Amino acid sequence: MAPRRRTPLVVSNNFKLVFLSAVGLTLLPILIAVIYSLLVTDPTEIQSRVISVCLDLAKIGFGTVFGLIGGARMK
Fold this sequence. Notes:
Layout: H1 13-39, H2 45-74
Helix pairs in contact: 1-2
C-alpha cells in the first residue's frame, strides 16, 4: 500500500486575522500581568485580583489558540 500524500494546508486570510488577533489578545494580559507584578512590590487584594484576572484571560487565550490550530488541522 502506497503512503498517502499530505496536501498542504491552505490558510485563508480570515483565519490568519482571527488567529493573530487571538495570539495578540493572549499575549497582552500576560504582558500586563508581568509588568504589573514587577511594578507593584506589595500588592493589595485588588491588585492581586487584577493579576489573577490577567492570568485567567491568558489561559482562555491559550485554549482559543490551540482550538483554532486544531480546528484548522481537522479540515
